[in-house]
Design a protein that fits this description.
125 residues; mainly alpha; 0% strand
Length: 125
């Protein structure tokens, strides 16, 4: 083993980590939305509002609404769809990672507690 397990951090630390994950996720979504808007506007020829809608639909795990008539637009849409899938998974992980980390830490504390109690009794006897 690697020594005793540290206690759970205070809730304020947990909530700070949740907020940091949300902030990083929001920044990634904003970057992805901007990238998609630029591509759909300049390469596909959509107006800004439609470009934003298509980019948001792909980032949200849905599909594009407008057809893609140009070859350059189709190539962009292909790679943007792959990028959007990775962003969707990454942002989900950023949001959930602090909660999973805290849950696993709690399980380790609970699993270590009986072993420490048992070891303590052996030393006394």
């Amino acid at each position: 083993m690697h020594g005793p397990i540290k206690p759970l951090p205070p809730r304020r630390v947990f909530f700070r980590r949740l907020a940091e994950g949300a902030l990083h996720g929001a920044a990634l979504i904003g970057f992805g939305l901007g990238l998609g808007m630029l591509g759909y506007h300049y390469l596909v020829g959509l107006p800004w509002l439609d470009a934003m809608l298509n980019a948001a639909m792909l980032l949200g795990g849905e599909g594009p609404l407008a057809p893609t008539p140009t070859a350059a637009g189709k190539i962009f849409a292909t790679f943007y769809a792959l990028f959007s899938g990775l962003v969707f998974v990454t942002v989900t992980a950023l949001f959930l990672a602090p909660a999973f980390q805290r849950l696993i830490h709690r399980f380790h504390l609970e699993a270590a507690a009986p072993a420490e109690e048992h070891a303590g009794r052996d030393r006394i006897a």
